[in-house]
Amino acid sequence: MNSVCLIGRLARDPELRYAQTGTAMCRFTVAVDRRLSKQKRQEAQANNQPTADFISCTAFGATAELIANYHKKGSQIGIEGRIQTGSYERDGRTVYTTDVVVNNLTFIGSSQGGGQAQGGFNQNQAGFNQNNFQNQGGFNQAGMASPGPVNSAYENDFSKSDNDDDGFFPVDNDDIPF
């Protein structure tokens, strides 16, 4: 199974281009923090070693346009996709590439920290979902004309106190449309 799920921040502004056929293509880089203990993180920072990985990503079609129009450097984003490798020639040398091709996109928040989960986008190709993830609300390219904001909520019990809500509010399961 070739499946990738990343949550991180855009390391630079997305680059939107259009192919001769009119298909939108967006290239961007997601900075994903490594899971390090506090001590290991401090050691890495003291030695000028990276504490994040920078993952090259590519999106196509309406997904590409959404990323380019609603995200900028520093924006937090969640993506699901697949790994794709390739190669090309530069100055007589073969350059190998590894990218994540985006299938699903989740708007998580803004770089200013004021945004909450704002919905998602699921790009289906050839009328079927290429992965085993459920469309958690948002926009399904195969079935709808335009995206709209969708609020997603998940129940969890991670030993959080009732007073520590981090800006989230309780949602009744009967209010969720899926």
UniProtKB/TrEMBL annotation:
Acidic residues: bias regions: 163-178
Keywords in alphabetical order: DNA-binding
InterPro entries xref list: NA-bd_OB-fold (IPR012340), Primosome_PriB/ssb (IPR000424), ssDNA-bd (IPR011344)
GO BP of this protein: DNA replication
GO MF annotations in UniProt: single-stranded DNA binding
Chain positions covered by the region annotation Disordered: 113-178
Positions of transmembrane segments: none
A cellular-component GO term for this protein: nucleoid
Bias kind Low complexity: ranges: 119-143
Pfam families: SSB
Subunit note: Homotetramer.
PANTHER family: SINGLE-STRANDED DNA-BINDING PROTEIN
Name of the protein in its database record: Single-stranded DNA-binding protein
Species per Swiss-Prot/TrEMBL record: Peptoniphilus harei ACS-146-V-Sch2b
Species classification: Bacteria, Bacillati, Bacillota, Tissierellia, Tissierellales
